[in-house]
Structure formats: structure tokens, C-alpha cells
Amino acid sequence: MSSLPSSSRPPSRPRRRSLLATAAGAVLLAGCTGSSGSGADAASRAADRARARAARDSAELAGRYAAVIAAHPGLAERLDPLRAEVLRHAAAFGGARAASPSVSPSGSARAAGPDDGSTADAVPAAEEEALALLAAAERKLADRRTAALADVPGELARLLASVAAAGAGHVYLLTEGDR
User: Fold this and answer.
1) Contact 148/93 with Cβ under 8 angstroms?
2) Contact yes or no for 158/149 (Cβ under 8 A)
3) Could you report the per-residue pLDDT of 5-34, keeping only the tens digit for each?
4) How far apart are CA 86 and CA 64, in angstroms?
5) 109's torsion region: left (phi>0), alpha (psi -120 to 50) or beta?
6) How many degrees, rounded to 5, is the angle at CA 143 between CA 140 and CA 146?
7) Which whole-number Å values give the CA distances from 166 to 63, 145, 160, in the listed order?
8) What is the tens place of the pLDDT at every residue in 135-151?
9) CB of 138 within 8 A of CB of 169?
């Protein structure tokens, strides 16, 4: 019986290179896993921000409708259904549904497009100009929502598209309604 020659080395243990390669691989795997989760979280946060902005924009637009109605009570019958729909849009995006924002009949509230940077736009004294201002606000918001479709996930994109289409319908009703 011959025995295997004994080596002067201790029993086999991992070599330094093996340990380094394994550690590097683990770090890479952990990095990949963490980044995909972080990407999903980032996408979710971006969608939440887009949804909150859409709700805020709809609420502001409803306020503009209220300002025009307060300044021109004769337009209430024509504008109340559009304003009610805009409030439903705000609620669909998760915004609080306001019953009726307080607007003074002086017509000093803004009636320009959402986020247009102006702070002192008053409701025009002429009804046609007030309607044109509302139509411009609706058009601007519908265009912005359409442009955002590629940046949001499916269900939110469908909701944005639907609300943008409704806004385009409002533009038609505001500009062509009595012609």
C-alpha cells in the first residue's frame, strides 16, 4: 500500500485571488440588484410627481373657470359643466376635490394658463376675451400633458391622454361653441 505523498502545505483553503474575485462578483451582483430596485423607485417617484402636478394643474384650471364665472355670471351655464369636469380630472389624478374655490366677483383672479409665470392676470372685462383666455389655458395644459405621455407609465399615460383629449374638447367648446 502506498500512500500519497504528504505535502508541506496545510489543507486546501481558498486562495486570495479566489476570495477577491468572489467578493468583486458579489459587489457587482449587489450593485445590479440595487440599481434595478432604485430605478423602479425613481420611476415610481417620477410618476407620483407627474400625477401630483396634473392634479394641481387641474385644480388651478378649475379656479380659473371659477374666476371667469365670478366675473361673468352670464357664462355660468356654459362654463359650469366644463369646470365640473376639470374638478373630476383633478380628483382622478388624486387631487382634493374642491367644492368651490373662493373667488371674488371683482375678477382679480388669474385666468391665464397653468404655470405661465404670470401673477397678476385679471379676468378680461369682455366675455369673449375671458373665454379666449380659458381656451388658451386649456390648450396649453392639453399640449403639456400630451408631451408628458412618453415619460409616464401606462395607466397614468392613458389617464393623461384622456384628460388631454377632454381639454382639447373644452378648447373647441370655448372657441366654437356659439358659432
Assistant:
1) no
2) no
3) 555 555 555 555 554 454 444 434 444 444
4) 11
5) beta
6) 150
7) 17, 11, 10
8) 999 999 999 999 999 98
9) no
